[in-house]
Amino acid sequence: MRTQKDSPAVRTITLGHSPDPDDAFMFYALAAGKIETGDLRFEHILQDIQTLNERATRGELDVTAISIHAYASVLDKYALLPSGASMGDGYGPMVVAKGRRSKDEIRKMKIAVPGRMTSAFLALRLWLGEDFNHVVVPFDQIFATVKRGDAEAGLIIHEGQLTYQKEGLDLCVDLGAWWKADTGGLPLPLGGNAIKKSLGKPLMSRISKLLTESIRYGLAHRQPAVAHAMAYARDMDVPLADKFVRMYVNDWTLDYGDKGREAIRLFLRRGCEAGIIPQAVDLEFVE
């Protein structure tokens, strides 16, 4: 095992990501010292995605997981890394409730959402075609909020997409499935990794390669990477956690590719056309 040793020459890179199995899997090699990072040391900062989105608006972290929706607000500070994508290829955030509800019924409901800057929020807003009554709660409290009756429906992300039935709730719409059908086969772009442009292009490129190497290592060493991710697998056994990781750490995660980039541009353009995103977005990727 390779280790990262502190020395006066070591540079610490702050790396923010969610405490979820897919992110833990993605950064397993970095966290466990499985790849050589030279004079760079990565400080892992685990916070929910809405908090990371908000921190990105203040430029607080060197590298951060970010909602694609939120990236539209930090173009001056961050560029997107080519790896680290979470793409819903025919699946994605869901609206659940006590009993199935139609789109017209959902429009009239109070919906618990995990944050206004999340891609799930933007996708739901685009699906509904209008603003909607909502309350923001931490993503891991949405089930409880709906079951208590504090909201009539919930917009779920992360592992909730696989566990909502155990909570006694019903699926009203899978926004990833809707998006794929509505766009002629494009995946729904949910999250990515962003890097501060102030680091300079040489360092940005070097960090980009290390993060890609970490993802590739996890995919090549699946069993120990999933075992590492189990520490963040809420209410999931190993097979279910592995299924969730496969959904969001795959070929899309290694590189968006042309199709993934097209999906991001369309998602944000539709957000702009709907008046949700205030201005047109000119994407910047680290090469």
Kindly report how far apart the N and C termini lie. 29 Å
How many beta-strand elements?
Answer: 11
Classify the fold: give the CATH topology of the largest domain.
D-Maltodextrin-Binding Protein, domain 2
Number of domain units: 2
Which segments are poorly predicted (pLDDT under 50) over 5 or more consecutive residues?
A: 1-6
Mean pLDDT across the residues is 93
Helical residue percent? 40-55%
Largest sheet: 6 strands, mixed
Beta-strand residue percentage? 15-25%
Would you list the SSEs in sequence order as H and E? Answer: EHHEHEHEEEHEHEHEHEHEHHHHH
Q: What is the top-level CATH class of the largest domain?
A: Alpha Beta
The class by helix and strand makeup works out as alpha/beta
Name of the CATH superfamily of the largest domain: Periplasmic binding protein-like II
Radius of gyration: 19 Å
What gross morphology would you assign?
A: globular
How many distinct helices? 14
- What's the architecture of the largest domain, going by CATH? 3-Layer(aba) Sandwich
